[in-house]
Amino acid sequence: MQEGKRVKKYRMSRQRTILAYLFLSPVLLFFLVFFLIPIVFSLYISFARWDMLTPLSQAPLVGLKNYQYILFKDDLFLLTLKNTLVFALGTVVLNVVLSLFLAFLFTRSRFKALWRTIYWLPMVTTVSAVATMWQYIFKARGLINALLADVNISGPIWLADPRTAMPAVILVSVWAGLGGAMLIFSAGLEGIPDSYYEAARVDGANVRQEFWHITIPLLRPTILFNLVTGFIGGLSSFTLIMVMTQGGPLNTTNVVANYMYQVAFSDMRMGRASAMAFALFGVILLVTLIQLRVFRRGGIESY
Amino acid sequence: MSSAITGRAERAIKTGRAGRAGRGVSPWGIAGGVLKYGILIFGAFTIILPFIDMFLGAVKTIPEMRAEPPVWISRDPQWGVFLEVMHLLPMARLYTNSFLVSISVTFLVLFTSALAGFVLAKYRFPGRDLIFGFILATMMFPVFLFLIPNYYILRHIPFVGGNDITGWGGTGLMHSRLSLILPFMVSAWGIFMLRQFAVGLPDELLDSARIDGASEFRIFWQMILPQLKPALATLAVFQFMGIWNEYLWAMTITTSAPEMMTVPVGIWLLRDSLDPMRNLALIRAATAVAVVPIMILFVSLQKYYVKGIVMTGIKG
């Protein structure tokens, strides 16, 4: 009797396991074909010299030469790496600070649906459209310079001036990402029980104290989420810069993703491009781990 | 919404502070309130201004574009520019392509995410945590790490597009919309989100259905899916938007197959085509034509997916 039950239970759990893998099979197959194979493939060609036109089997292996080249000889790669970090850091920091601040205000306001709709608009706008819109705004006689002219400042040609191109691109990136980050922050803010704030108010806390002593500590997981996903997106960002500046002027806005695309599909140097992709992955991984580490030290165990 | 209101009412009754329990009333004061709305309005204005600039710029006449000081609101708006765009860009085809790809991807992602999310949340089996961890880890890899291999893989799939058994001789899926759909049919983010949501569903639901002898797939299809609706709505919108705006892969694929070109790639290509001054207006008009319908769609659906976000609690 007891034995029979156990056998039955064992059979059921085995059945369930088979079923689980059956249900997961489309997903697993997908990750095999479009994730694992490409990773191995990329890793292989990062050690080879290959132009994509010849069969892969005829591509000569060159060992670590591609990595050596991009890390020690290719000044442009190092410059684009630096640009990528500047772009991501600028975008993420501004985005998180602004969106948190705005979300804090907006969850305590009337007309929530209205604010949400407006701030969300850039999120539903195709990135290449965003880039196009802003390109005109930054032109010599565009909106920004016209506004500056009203207060007697003669603005630069933003996207053609090596000093202003990067800040301009960062600004657009922040503008475009604000709504999404705000939405996630507002979901986090709604999750903080009202009673915490009420208790603070009974103790005579003002809004600023509420923000620093209740909102920020309780919102740490959400902040971490926005930081991590923001950095991953920012470090591999491509479209906005490709459309707005194509990496110019003088490569001041050229980022790794952009340069890699050029090396791969214009110069047909697949090996070198793959090595760049892995180098960038290394940077993303490092940045993510640092963030997780810092937040964990701060007492967040849920990650 | 209603529960929030009753909750607040209850608390107000308990604390005996009925009438002024609304959040955001007490600690701000009048100056704070003015500042708060001032900041929100200023921000909203900054968000809207580029869109307005785009519309105003699209309908200006050529002399108005050159005028000094700049003219903002055209005296003689050139509404015809929108029609001209329709002639210059195959807008109908771009929209059809974008819709076909985005809708297919969205449905595939919803299905695969729900199924995988359900299994990862509700089944206990060896390897589960490993698979879940692996799926989360895939999110960290930059997309363009897959650009070259995926291009190669899709080009050299055996037996399609003139390829022989070794995958050579033809162009593979390069001229099929599948090449725009397949690489996006599973979303790690989607699986993660639906798994988090499915964990919260009561186990009794499944057990009672199992006692009734329902098959596991039927349980998923008839009991779990309806429960996942709010999360699915949210995921659908994010996914649709993501793929609609996807540019890198679409550009890589459609440069050699312009008949499959999507909206974002189309707008970008327009810029090189005409005389610069006229182009200024045309590109802005094209941008407007590309952006507005989808914007209306999302704004009108907002109610559904915002609820899903709050309910799923993407709090990290």
N-to-C span of chain B: 23 Å
Write down the domain tally of chain A: 2
Whole-number radius of gyration of chain A? 25 Å
- CATH uppermost class of the largest domain in chain A: Mainly Alpha
Helix/strand/pairing category of chain B? mainly alpha
- What's the number of extended β-strand segments of chain B? 0
Rg calc of chain B? 26 Å
Averaging pLDDT over every residue of chain B, what do you get? Answer: 80
Low-pLDDT sequence parts of chain B: 1-25
Beta-strand percent range of chain B: under 5%
Estimate nothing, just give the exact number of structural domains of chain B.
1
What is the top-level CATH class of chain B?
Mainly Alpha
How many helices of chain A in DSSP terms? 13
- Portion in helices of chain B: 55-70%
Going by CATH, what is the homologous superfamily of chain B? MetI-like
**Judging by the overall fold, what is the CATH architecture of the largest domain in chain A?**
Orthogonal Bundle
Quote the CATH topology of chain B.
MetI-like fold
CATH homology superfamily of the largest domain in chain A: MetI-like
The CATH topology of the largest domain in chain A? MetI-like fold
List keywords for this structure.
heterodimer; A: 303 residues; mainly alpha; MetI-like fold; 13 helices; 0% strand; flat; disordered C terminus; B: 316 residues; 15 helices; disordered N terminus
Task: Write up what this structure looks like.
- The complex is a heterodimer of chains A (303) and B (316).
- Chain A folds into two domains: 44 residues; 229 residues, MetI-like fold (Orthogonal Bundle).
- Helix content of chain A is 73%, strand content 0%.
- Chain A has 13 helices and no strands.
- In chain A, helix 3 crosses helix 7, helix 3 packs antiparallel against helix 10 and helix 4 runs antiparallel to helix 7.
- The longest helix of chain A has 44 residues.
- Chain A is flat, with a radius of gyration of 25 Å.
- With 316 residues, chain B is an all-alpha fold.
- Chain B has a single domain, classed as MetI-like fold (Orthogonal Bundle).
- Helices cover 68% and strands 0% of the residues of chain B.
- Chain B contains 15 helices and no strands.
- In chain B, helix 5 crosses helix 12, helix 6 crosses helix 9 and helix 12 runs antiparallel to helix 15.
- Chain B is flat.
- The relative contact order of chain B is 0.12.
- The N terminus of chain B is likely disordered.
- The interface between A and B is large, with 105 and 96 residues.
